[in-house]
What does this fold into?
Amino acid sequence: MSETEAPINVYRRHFLTSIGALTASVALGGALVQRVASARAPEEAVTGKVRWGMLVNAGKCVEGCDDCVKACDEENGLKSSGRSEIDAQWIRKVTLKDKTTNRTTVLPMLCQHCTTAPCVDVCPTGASFRRIDGIVLVDKHLCIGCRYCMMACPYKARSFIHEAHSDQKSWAPRGKGTVESCTLCVHRVDRGETTTACQDACTKAGHNAILFGDMNDPNSEIAKHLATEPSTQVRGNLNLNLGVRYQGI
Amino acid sequence: MNITYREIEGTSPGYYALLAVLGLFILLGLGAAMYMEHEGHHVTGMSNQIVWGMPHVFAVFLIVAASGALNVASVSSVFSKTPYKPLAPLSALLAMSLLLGGLIILVLDLGRPDRLIVAMLNYNFKSIFAWNIFLYTGFLAVTAVYLWLMMERRMNPYSKRAGLVAFVWRLILTTGTGSIFGFLVAREMYDSALLAPMFIIMSLAFGTAIYLLVLLSAYHGTGRALGDATLRRLKNLLGVFVAAVLLMVLTFHLTKLYVTQHHGVEQFILLDGGVYTVLFWGGQIVLGTLLPLALLFHPATGASRSGITAASVLVVLGGLAQMYVLIIGGQAYPMELFPGFEVQSSFADSGIAAYTPTLYEIALGLGGTALALTLVTVAIKVLRFLPLSLADADVDPHHAAAKDAA
It folds into this structure.
């Protein structure tokens, strides 16, 4: 009996092992397929389930450091013309001094990616638009260079391209005579990346003042911070529901 | 009353000299526009802080004045004042010409004027700018029809109704122009519904002043009769409009002054804004309002043609000063992103933004103005816009009767 049982046991052991391995592979593969399927393909439309946003902790932002500005310039091919009043600044460092207490705060200012963006409202051709995932952009084919959006933006976040530029980045076309502003590194977002150039620079400098992410995903780092810590919107009285939130001001 | 309209002869050296001077300004304006377009806006005084500059001062002034220039025709058609009837065709012509002059400046100042077709094919109807494209083109169409009904004798009975449509349209148009600024919540100087009615009243003053200047020049140049009673009516109208603008300006600033949030911008405009304060008090209020009012209502200067001419020129200059203070001054004053804080940045978040208009911008503005005047100068030579005589007895039979009785 025992002699006849042995081969059967071996067979059963092999069989069970194979089944186990197969189940594990299917499960793992399925999980992988699931992950690939939920990541947005380049040709797939963006979804409103996502709201890309940014949390800036002014308490961690360091005076004299402008790594985020340099990184943005580098990432998007912004170069100085030597005349600061016509240079594009998608992100800028702002120093605030409380008139009563003299307390000083520094923070980066950029397009706030409003839900009801005044630039989108006033644009006559619809060149200023808000993607359903919360990113406010300029359609470079539709912009006629009227600059009404610059008049309307409550955050002075937009720049006009005053002269021709060479060596542009393919993802950030900068045609003379049109308006531009922070894109929340939309080219990275569309490649499936999860950080912006300014955030990377701030992290690299060890300050960690900038956090980019999906405000709608309760498991995202940014949503967790926003849900548990106080934060504020600049010019919140305008009720524009901003995509960029601040702490420490 | 039988008014005869005739083309002007337009063969005098003076006529050709006028056309030559206007043509020169148009060429200079076109050259400036081409240079700005080729080089980019870095050759202008405009920047990321002052995004609308001198061209917009001229353009908005001309567009506002255009709707006001139609007022003389409206008084005739809508309010049935017979003595204004002979003045109506020139009024409609001037309205269309001024609007075209203003629009061409706006278009040539665009970052991409070559994309005008994009603006014609893509509309965002939440934008007051998009609305204005229809209001402006519609105004040209409505006024053209109105003009035709007035000038084609068989169609005269319909001109009153067209005049009413044009009158309502011009009120909406100026409301739209004022709302370009009124809808801007971002900036302290704007964001006020008062700007819409203020622009309507400003249009009446600017348009009537330009109308008076064109009328006086045309009748002086052609040697045709222009009665004192006609002039007196128009100058009184101008005086009332200028006073009404003063009232609106007073209300505008008083309502701003009542709100603590706006004290900064008011202090900037009224007290320590440098060139803007000088232009407000010296240009807009003294030269553009008080002096013309004195000239128009003083018995001596009010009855003299040079007095009325001087007052009209001053109203135009004061209007340009008012536009400069509103458009450039409103942008020069920094936006308050962080109330209660002193702000410093590399992007001029603090302090007053500097702006010096370049010759190119001024040339473009003057070019558009010259285009408007050229259109009028040529039109009155080819079509019958001007009555042969505007002598008091010809214009108003009652006037003659009253004089006879006396």
In short: Chain B has 16 helices and five strands. The radius of gyration of chain B is 22 Å. The beta strands of chain B are 5-6, 225-226, 341-345, 386-387, 389-390.
